[in-house]
Amino acid sequence: MRRKNRSSTTGKTTPPLSPVVSEEMKAWSWALASEVADWPGASARSFFGFTALYRGGNIFGAVPRTRSFGKGNLLGFRIDTLPARLRSKIEKDPRVGFIDNKSRRWFTFELTRDPALHEALDWLGGAYQAAGKRRKSKK
Fold first, then answer.
1. Is the dihedral of CA 54, 59, 61, 62 positive or negative?
2. Is residue 16 part of a domain?
3. pLDDT score at 102
4. How many folded domains does the chain comprise?
5. Please, are residues 2 and 16 in contact by the beta-carbon 8 Å criterion?
6. Range of the domain at 116
7. Is 66 exposed, middle or buried (0-12, 13-18, 19+ CB in 10 A)?
């Protein structure tokens, strides 16, 4: 079923649906979420077509379950305050992008092949560490 861009009754524009995630990305997401689940204080919850990753009450990542962040095989991770070392690493890695250019605290990482899973875990690990330093998010 296709979603219309404009509601016939209200005239308001509705946002397009996120693209469906590839079978390959579903497998990678499952592997990443399974690995992260073993980290101390980490948990996972379903969240609008994604698996949200938490450290305590703080979200630090999201991997696609049925929907993607955009074109490509993207996962998301959150780091509120970027140390200079991480900022430099992000700027040098063409696979890292921003979900929101204004706040620049939610990032994407594009997986293109199996060996990149280790790098994806590194980014999620950095986000996990940063989540441990944040105050607990309000629910």
1. positive
2. no
3. 66
4. 1
5. no
6. 23-133
7. middle
Query: In 81-123, at which residue ranges do the beta strands (DSSP E only) sit?
Result: 96-98, 106-110
* pTM score: 0.80
* pLDDT > 50? residue 7: no
Residue 82 CA: distances (Å) to CA of 26, 48, 62, 100, 132: 29, 27, 18, 15, 14
Provide, rounded to the nearest whole percent, the portion of the chain with pLDDT above 90: 55
Query: Residue 15 CA to chain centroid, in angstroms?
Result: 19
Q: Nearest Cα to 107, choosing from 85, 89, 119, 123? A: 123
The CATH number of the domain holding residue 82 is 3.90.1150.30
Would 104 be classed as within a structural domain? yes
Q: Is residue 95 part of a domain?
A: yes
pLDDT digits (tens, 9 = 90+) for 50-108: 999 999 999 999 999 998 877 779 999 999 888 888 888 888 999 998 877 666 789 99
